[in-house]
Amino acid sequence: MGFFFGMIIGIAIGIGLIVAFARAERIRSKCRSDLAKTVAAFARMTVQDSRKLLPSQYYPSWVVFTQRQKLNWLNHHLQKIWPYVNEAASELIKSNVEPILEQYRPVILSSLKFSTLTLGTVAPQFTGVTMVESESVAGGVTLELELQWDGNPNIVLDIKTRVGLALPVQVKNIGFTGVFRLIFKPLVDEFPCFGAVSYSLREKKKLDFVFKISGGDISSIPGVSDAIEETIRDAIEDCITWPVRNVIPIIPGDYSDLELKPIGTLEVKLVEAKELTNKDLVGKSDPFAVIFIRPLPDRTKTSKVIDNDLNPIWNEHFEFVVEDSTTQHLTIRIFDHEGLQAAELIGCAQMKLSQLEPGKVKDVWLKLVKDLEVQRDTKYRGQVHLELLYCPFGIDGNIVNPFDHDFALTSLEKALKHESNETDSSELRKTAAQKKKEVFVRGVLSITVISAEDLPVVDFMGKADPFVVIIMKKSEAKAKTRVVTNNLNPVWNQTFDFMVEDALHEMLMVEVWDHDTFGKDRIGRVIMTLTRVLMEGEYQDCYALDIAKSGRIYLSLKWVAQHKVRDT
Fold first, then answer.
1. Rounded-to-integer distance, Cα 396 and Cα 32, Å
2. Would you call 320 helix, strand, or coil by DSSP?
3. Where is the C2 domain (predicted)?
4. Of 548, 549, 546, which is closest to residue 272 (Cα–Cα)?
5. For the whole prediction, is pTM greater than 0.70?
6. Quick one: which of 88, 104, 90, 86 has its CA closest to 239?
7. How far is residue 321's CA from residue 241's CA, in Å, rounded to a whole number?
């Protein structure tokens, strides 16, 4: 009897302890949440709010009422502590940046190190302070500080060239304007109320500097000045520019979740360009493209050169790592290849990754401009055609990526791969990148040419006699519709089937022609890859005709995969 009574008492006490522990955790969680809300509310307080809480006679001397006065207070105190900041920051920069300079050291140099590094006597000036409310969630607070620095640092680089020439190079006339982002996260119930602070250069508005050597001009040594400047800019991009986040622990703990991590991949199909500006005096430009998300040498992709063509067709695929889809963007620059001379920029364009819907192919034409920062030049430089597919990590079951090796596997092969994943996953990860390059997708593409609208008048006597030519660019397979006489809004409703051996690298060209008794004239064309039909299986859409004053064509595409046995 005593045993059962003791057991009941023990169970009751255990349940009571569990309930008490759960209640304590709820209370603690609520306190943390309330603290985060309070900190965020104080950060959003305006001058009027503060006046309601405290009369002006109770304000400390550092409390001010305008943004300008706040900045003056910050700059005044920064100037006071600058000698100590200079000493600490100089040593920190030297120890952290030297390894990165060595990593990006150009091949013409055998050594690149700091011999002297001090930041001088002129402190930076804060020119703006903003709280980023969209980033300041319950677990943290995000501030952005705009900073301007026209300093007098003493920075000397010791460089040695491959031919044994040693040069002390001074970095002078530094002018910098940028926005730094500070993330205070996570919020905790211990002083100073946050566990760590992360910092990053959110936006680099201006960075100017010049190189000097004792008794001469470094520009007299071919290639050295440009190589050092490129190395410095690459180092800044790699070590501090957003989305890179440098985490400083304030309270001991694990803050690995705050560090930079890849969140997905961006598949880019460089399709074509049209109406490019001609940079050559004799003949036409020889365009090629440079594409990147982060402008680092190992993350920048370069297309092949198309000789003597202002309407080049590339049909090239590139893959990029995405680290922050909300703020990063894809940049493309089109150059004219000049042989041994430096390539000449034709134009550039950008696409925000936030405009992409995960798992959906976006077909875009981007207008080229001279400068992405200062768009004063309104001259037309042409357009570039891209197909973009953003695939976030962690939702593989919901998003189909046709460039993934698994896409081309049969059901049996996928089952066998699943078994091998459990026994040899490390080996598969090592060869994943190579396998992506070897993906071949085979199947039948059915194309229905439905109709066209608003075609331009091309005949002297009458309207037009249009017909459509379908071309598979890689395999060179062709098909042609019937001719519809004297009609600017023809209807065909004809279907053609093509056996496609390599759908990922194939390109579909749909050309509308005018039939004449003694010849034919091309009215316009549409060029597309097969990425979308591979993902969706079947779709119908309307396409504007390129190289035409007007006109649209309606097409229906259907894909049926034809798996074949491959050697293992």
1. 34
2. strand
3. 245-366, 424-543
4. 546
5. yes
6. 104
7. 16
Q: Say how far apart CA 89 and CA 82 lie, in whole Å.
A: 10
Q: How far is CA 63 from CA 46, 50, 57, 173, 334, in A?
A: 12, 10, 11, 35, 52
Whether omega before 124 lies within 30 degrees of 0, making that bond cis, reads: no
Report the candidate in 167, 158, 150 with the shortest Cα–Cα distance to residue 208: 150
Residues in the chain: 568
What pLDDT shows up at residue 217? 58
Angle at 495 between CA 492 and CA 496, to 5 degrees: 125
H or E stretch covering 319? strand 313-322
Q: Are 38 and 187 in contact (CB under 8 A)?
A: no
What CA–CA distance (Å, rounded) separates 60 from 299?
A: 51
CA distances in angstroms from 438 to 110, 132, 432, 505, 535, listed in the order given = 38, 44, 10, 11, 19
**Pairing of β 519-529 and β 383-392:** unpaired
Cα-based angle 371, 374, 375 (whole degrees, multiple of 5): 70
Angle in degrees, CA 93, 217, 232, rounded to 5: 25
d(CA 157, CA 507): 51
Q: What is the largest CA-CA distance in the chain?
A: 113
Whether the predicted pLDDT of 332 surpasses 50:
yes
487-529: pLDDT as tens digits:
999 999 999 999 998 888 889 999 999 988 666 788 999 999 8
